[in-house]
Amino acid sequence: MKSDATAAVLIIGNEILSGKTQEANLKFMAEGFARLGIKLAEARVIRDEPPIIAAVVNELRARYTYVFTTGGIGPTHDDVTAESVARAFGVELVVNEEARRRIASSGRELNQARLKMATVPEGASLIDNAVSLAPGFRIGNVFVLAGVPSIARAMFAACEGELEGGRPILSESIDVYQREGDFAAALEAIAKRYPEVDIGSYPFSRDGRLGASLVVRGTDGARVAAAMTEIRETLAPAD
Amino acid sequence: MKSDATAAVLIIGNEILSGKTQEANLKFMAEGFARLGIKLAEARVIRDEPPIIAAVVNELRARYTYVFTTGGIGPTHDDVTAESVARAFGVELVVNEEARRRIASSGRELNQARLKMATVPEGASLIDNAVSLAPGFRIGNVFVLAGVPSIARAMFAACEGELEGGRPILSESIDVYQREGDFAAALEAIAKRYPEVDIGSYPFSRDGRLGASLVVRGTDGARVAAAMTEIRETLAPAD
């Protein structure tokens, strides 16, 4: 059991950086990594440019246990993820026969564009796509998923069995209707007594009332619960 | 006029990487940069850890014209952005008198926690916060904004006048109810004739119908319009 497993998410797509599209895959992947006991260390959003994609893939795969990419594996000219990952690994692009069979099974013409979706870096294995047939792929510690959220979710679920995590990261939270500036000192004192858990404070405004969501996270359930009990007793006593 | 101005967005916050919170600032900032003619080259999400924040700030500020950070400037112990940016620039943290005055003007106790929100890297200038008084700050080409979306928006608007962009990046789009695999070759042929614009294809499924949103982006309005006309005539003729 690899308890120090780490991950990075690499979101490939000009549509996110132009403001056209709201990014919609990071949150569910982050929840998935937490459930699996894998620390999501960072996420990046980069443009559809092969030299950039290849360089960032190489940087991230050397640094983290797992790298998950989303986007850029469709049939159009702006889908450049497969060629970029092949470049990162220094391997050729090849047509994967199983991928070709799956895509052909739709009955639609297997033209050059569709054949591109069966083309993966040499040595890659396929990631099932329960939604629309065209698979993602894995090479080394890099998992290449589609960007369309419904497909990305299906592909992420298909990969979970291949990931070696640690103890799941547990989380408890409570909302308090106090200003952060009023409780920060008390919260910091508690955080210092529980160095093995992460305590976060996230301010909000709801229906004109200011407050904060206090979140305790860690792998030791007893310590997470004890820290939350102290927070509740100190900041939100049920007087 | 700096027509090659670039930007990076740095999102600081464990709450995004744990899956607790949906990121909600990147899209409006991306739209703002496009409007200003600044190319948003990348975005990163990193954890609330000062050594990591400082290293990434230094990497990004050397590489891009502007760096915008969000998150981690509140009063609680997990708000570590100001100290991390000071570390990146090799300067001390100092209490900014104007920031102190603004925060004190709320009438609430100016305790240690609230004073922390008036503490910025030496040499920084303030970024107005029309929502909740506590300002952001700018040092060099790094703009440090709050993470709460309503405040981040107000702060971004307050910074716009300080940014030197180029020609606004124009965009036209059309939705076609065809499969990408069927039109990819025709679209690529058009993209090759218009190398000075970006043409993207973003597949969707709506009410059970598959299609794609085709987007043309560039600074030359005539070329953007011409490329879109070709796309419309080729892929969505009004027969």
Task: Outline the structure in words.
- 2 copies of one chain form a homodimer.
- Chain A is of the alpha/beta class.
- The first copy, chain A, folds into 2 domains: 6-162, Molybdenum Cofactor Biosythetic Enzyme, Chain A (3-Layer(aba) Sandwich), CATH 3.40.980.10; 170-235, Alpha-Beta Plaits, CATH 3.30.70.
- Chain A has 9 helices and 11 strands.
- Chain A has helices at 14-17, 26-36, 50-63, 81-89, 97-104, 112-116, 149-159, 180-193, 221-235, and strands at 6-12, 39-46, 66-70, 93-95, 119-121, 125-127, 136-139, 142-145, 170-176, 198-206, 209-218.
- In chain A, strand 6 and strand 7 (136-139) form a beta hairpin.
- In chain A, helix 3 (50-63) crosses helix 4 (81-89) and helix 8 (180-193) packs antiparallel against helix 9 (221-235).
- The longest helix of chain A is centred in the C-terminal third of the chain and has 15 residues, at 221-235.
- Chain A is elongated.
- Chain A starts with 5 loop residues before the first strand and ends with a helix.
- The model of chain A has no long low-confidence stretch (mean pLDDT 95).
- Chains A and B meet through helix 1, helix 2, strand 2, helix 6 and helix 8 of A and helix 1, helix 2, strand 2, helix 6 and helix 8 of B.
- Strand 2 of chain A pairs antiparallel with strand 2 (39-46) of chain B, so a sheet runs across the interface.
